[in-house]
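Notes, Module 5: Reading structure tokens.

Key idea: the token line is not a picture. It is a compressed description, and you learn to read it the same way you learned to read a sequence, by spotting repeated patterns. We will look at two proteins. The first is printed below with its tokens.
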Amino acid sequence: MAAAVGTGLFRAITVSPPLHGIVKHEPGVKPAHHCGTNGCFTNPWPSFRERPRWNMFFSVLSNQIRNMPKVPDNISSLIPASTPNWGMGENVNSIKATWLGHACYLIELPTPAGATRGARIILDPALSHRCFSSEYLGPGRITPVPCKTEEIPEVDAIVLSHNHYDHTDTKSLQKLVKQHNAHVFAPLGNRPYLESCSIPHSNIHIFDWWESSQITVDLPSSAKSDSSSEGHNQSSTVQATFKVICTPCQHFSGRSANDRAKTLWASWAIEEILSSPSIPGSGDGEARAPKKIWFGGDTGYRTVFDGENEDDVPVCPAFKEIGEKIGPFDFAMIPIGAYDPRSLFSSVHASPKDSVAIFKDVKAKKALAMHWGTWILTTEPIMDPPRLLKEECHKSGVPEGDFDICGLGETRFF
């Protein structure tokens, strides 16, 4: 299969075919996560135990009705929102991460020498008011999106963890692809849905766990001073290259009552590939290592049923494997919310205690929290996730600020 080449409105993006190699599978034998019933995918670890589906549905519905948490009157000060500036013009040698709510971050990799910006990747862009199949039903946001989708600067890649509505939003995808001609990276089984969104076949790239691709983007050159900062001169561009790696997580998928686990779920690693070891603008040839990022998507860590001690149940081994095979990571985005009650949600949603364990397992140097403070999906109090995260970091010896929370629209540098 040849590399896919997409020509954006002003730039070229080249994507290599998915490559195996990080984890070897025995020829002719299905990987363990392909061995679910009725052709579905599965979580192949003792850390995942599932309740009967009919019981789960009614338990979740009943729990939500009886125990819906109250939105604090001062939510806008507790979770501040500001119009993003995307860190433009600042810290060109750093990763820039801007939180747009829930699990959506806009990432900009370090700026190559001679370019006006670094490669940009947006993760799980669900930017509509509701996370459901209808814009009139389902959970509505309790905090605002910090900007309009149309105000997001040029995006090169869209990375999706799985197809749940709070992570994969049709309108957001359609707007971003139309506006930027971005390429979309998603786990197995998601091509039919993405093509139904009118995304060009050549812009869709589908991966199994441990597959990777190399992406090269032609970025605008800073040499052409009479053009805007985002403008492109076809004869004056600078190439940036990075790798995306589809990595495991413990979750499930589905957008209707009859497609549960028909498509795969994933976390993702992103690794900068340097054409030159020198730091842009340093002028002294000073070397640095390529930056590495990990995006947790949506994941559980262990399954805890009523009456069980969570310290006695198995934990998911995938995260240590990710840390050993790909880490350490300069920066990670890790979910911290939607975990209560534990007997219902522990298998698929990490608690803050789980999140800190994942932080350590993947060998993250720094992390920001996500998957909280946007929609009410479960029954823990709105501000419990960041409070408990701070407590768990302290208990586990994670230095203050290494695993942090940020405001909506805020850009952090790593």
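Here is the second protein, with the sequence above and the tokens below, as before.
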Amino acid sequence: MSLSVQVDQRGGHPVVLVAGELDQPAVPRLRGVLFETFLAHPVVVVDLTGVSSVGMHGAGAVAMCCYTAGRLDRDLRVVPGLALTALAERIGAAGVLCRYRSVDSALAGPGVLVGAGARGGTRAAWAGLG
């Protein structure tokens, strides 16, 4: 299955809907859509619940987009889904990549991390990285 990426509007914010396999060949497409979207909007929700499998390159691309968005004073709110959550927990990145349980919670604003219990949006997760 290939990767499907679609941008919808919901609650006044763009929601990037991603489905399929988030592997190395899919990374440039996803990264391009995410960059284009968060450069045009201060808050972007990324719904990865439709992703059936994710590799290290895919997880790394999502993490780098979160970091870059934060450095540009943007908020990229990731709804990880099962595939990314499982990988993020294995590599110790759940606190950054697994922030929201649903698109509705992401649209509601910065909130409790799914795994760690800290508060804040994407920028807060990366604040210590300078």
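Summary for the second protein:
- Residues 4-124 form a domain with the Transcription Regulator spoIIAA fold (CATH 3.30.750.24).
- The first helix runs from residue 27 to 40.
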